[in-house]
Amino acid sequence: MAERPELIIVSGELAGRRFSVGEGGLRLGRSSSNDIHVPDEGLSRNHCLFETSGESGLRVTDLASANGTFVNDVQIGVDPVELKEGDIIEVGDVKVRVGAASAASAQPAASAAPAPVGKVDLGLGGSASGGGGSAAAQQRRRSPLANALWAVAVLAALGAIAVVLLVPADRDAPPAPAPVADEKPVLRELYYERVKADSRGIYRYALTLSEDGALSVKIDDTSNNRRMAPKRKSLSAEALAELGEVLSWDAMKDFDSSYSGVEPDPPALDGITLKAVYSTCAKTVRVANTQEPDELAAMREKLEAFSKSELGVWAIAYPREKLVELAEQAVSLGDAKWEDRDVNYGNLAASIAAYQEALFYLETVSPKPDCARAAADGLARSKEELQRRYTDQRFLADKALNLSRWEVARDELKVLLEMVPDRRDDRNRDARAKLMSAENNLKKRGAK
């Protein structure tokens, strides 16, 4: 089998270093966690990945870097690019050449090249330079200090031999500890795109996890005149861990890189691209006009559910007609609660919630239907009326508190809580705190 080419650094701080690419691949970037660590500001933390290809080839994949990866002065995209001997890969100010395998083993990725070390003469025969000469001549050339060191070395060697021969082996000694397992790949970056395109238009859903832990989504739906501005959210450590479980390396590694079917006539595309970058490796899977594996479909469903939950965009799953229908129903409910605002203290809050729900349904719908204006007007009207009634009711409650009329204050505050039932609302929190004070005073008075 032909030997696999090596990577030779031809510029930058590591110029002259050679690296061999094993089955696990080599990751290059600015972060010290990379196999090839280059502290160059022009590099991304995890810039590109070198992997083996076939029996004796190499390939390189750009890991969604900021400044790109260039092969022979041509910037590569998200697909792995096959390399051949003599190719020049440029990342930032660093150039890497694909060279023939050297006679000696290439330098391990995790350690620097050892400096040449000559033979050490301990006075046990032979010269440091490997030249000839009798043992007597070598003895004459040694200085008194060398003779003393020679004597110490001989005594130490004899002592070690005596220990080995005289001390019995401990048959009950515990076994040596097992080597530490390799680092588990941790999800760092993600790109997921789902595209459906035909003569009627294009639907595109693009989800990205950047290396700083921010999740963003962008949706275009030209066939239904929907376009949503990108939404972005920095994920918590718990959310990142959950996403890492959904897209674990163990779940991704066994998929093929491509699943392709026959292009239909007339031309159309039903495609998926999923690219995950981990702390030690990367994987890209593409599906075009064919049935995807069941395991991949299940993973994608979990991924989309996660993103919709985190970013609040689950409504994109519905077509335009369904979203307009849901919005119209919500507006009708809001109007009904507004008409009955004097029947129940909580009806104004219910009308506000219904109008807000209608606007949520219509967020990705363009152009907006007539019910969008009705929802916006109803929301503004209900909020204004609720604030007016809240102000009047709070005045009654505060007056009762100031006069120490605890029973009256308690009843007035309970009305406030019915008017503003949302516990996240500052007005609700203020009323609950005052209600607790009123009830505590009632208990004290009852104890007397």
Describe the structure in your own words.
With 448 residues, the protein is α+β, with helices and mostly antiparallel strands. It is 37% helix and 22% strand. It contains ten helices and 18 strands. Helix 6 (320-339) runs antiparallel to helix 7 (347-361), helix 7 packs antiparallel against helix 8 (370-402) and helix 8 packs antiparallel against helix 9 (406-419).
- Over all CA atoms, what is the radius of gyration? 36 Å
Number of strands: 18
Strand order of the largest sheet: 15-14-13-12-17-18-16
| Biggest beta-sheet profile | 7 strands, mixed
Query: Low-confidence stretches at least 5 residues in length (pLDDT < 50)?
Result: 104-146, 160-181
Mean pLDDT: 79
Helix content: 25-40%
Q: Structural class of the secondary structure composition? A: alpha+beta
Q: What is the terminal separation in angstroms? A: 97 Å
Strand content bin: 15-25%
Listing every helix as H and every strand as E from the N terminus to the C terminus, the arrangement reads EEEEEEEEEEEHHEEEEHHEEEHHHHHH
Number of helices: 10
- Global shape: elongated
Short note summarizing the structure:
With 448 residues, the protein is of the alpha+beta class. The chain has helices at residues 135-141, 144-166, 237-246, 249-252, 294-311, 320-339, 347-361, 370-402, 406-419, 426-447, and strands at residues 6-9, 18-19, 26-29, 36-37, 48-53, 57-62, 70-71, 74-75, 81-83, 88-91, 94-99, 187-198, 201-209, 214-221, 226-234, 258-260, 269-278, 282-288.
List keywords for this structure.
alpha+beta, 37% helix, 10 helices, 7-stranded mixed beta sheet, 22% strand, elongated, 448 residues
